[in-house]
Write a structure and sequence with these properties.
This protein is mostly helical. 61% of the residues lie in helices and 10% in strands.
Length: 162
């Protein structure tokens, strides 16, 4: 007579029950945090009509004015075409301008305009607010340990590349 599922011993774990490991759960959580951070950040800056990529682009240009589109793409970890679209939109909003490089007219450098300099402190406050929310109730020593651990994880993965 065939055994019905309900007749199986409930103490016997199915193969699928043990498939997910504690390490899986840790990695899933590591992936969940940046997803939620992106959502919180997107919500915080939507009042300015910017995307996270545009905010990051402004931040990198503020830190190092005169970056080329290629350099910006590397900083933001996007393809040149994608960063080009972000720069196009920031130009439309009068936040940045492209200037030809003097010694190579094919290369454009990116510079902030006054409107971006007025906007950046507001974006800084929104970013700080999101970060504060994320890190609330996390002790300074725990933050430092987390920072070290994440650096080590990134280093380990970078070493694993061919």
């Amino acid at each position: 007579m065939p055994v019905m599922t309900a007749d199986l011993d409930q103490n016997e774990a199915s193969p699928s029950a043990s498939f997910l490991t504690e390490t899986d759960e840790l990695v899933f959580l590591l992936e969940e945090v940046p997803r939620r951070l992106r959502q919180a950040f997107d919500e915080a800056i939507k009042q300015f009509g910017l995307t996270r990529t545009q905010w990051r682009t402004l931040a990198y240009v503020f830190r190092s004015e005169g970056l080329t589109q290629t350099e910006l793409a590397q900083c933001v970890e996007l393809e040149r075409a994608s960063i080009g679209q972000a720069i196009d939109r920031l130009e439309e909003l009068n936040y940045v301008e492209r200037r030809k490089q003097a010694d190579d007219r094919r290369v454009w450098k990116i510079y902030l305009l006054p409107a971006a300099l007025e906007l950046l402190p507001k974006l800084r406050r929104e970013a700080d607010s999101v970060y504060e929310k994320m890190l609330k109730d996390i002790a300074k020593s725990d933050r430092e340990q987390l920072h070290k651990t994440l650096r080590d994880l990134a280093k380990n993965l970078a070493e694993g590349r061919g």
